[in-house]
Amino acid sequence: MKVLFDITHPAHVHLFRNAIAELESQGHELKVTSRDKEITVQLLDAYDIDHQIISKNDRPLAIEWAIREVRLLSVARSFRPDIIVSRFNPAAAHISTVIGCPYIMFEDTEKENSIITNLTYPLTDVICTPTSFEYELGENHIQYEGFHELAYLHSSWFEPNKDVLKTHDVGPDETYTILRFVGWDAHHDTNENGLSLHAKRELVSKLSEHGSVYITSEANLPPDLADYRLPVPPEHIHHLLYYADLFVGDSQTMTCEAGILGTPAIRSNSLASADTDHAGYLRELEDEYELVFSTTDESVAVKLAEDLITSSVDSQWDKKRKSLLNKKIDVTEFILNIVNKNTL
Question: Which partner for 92 in 26, 86, 196, 298 could form a disulfide, CB atoms 3.0-4.6 Å apart?
Answer without folding.
Answer: 86
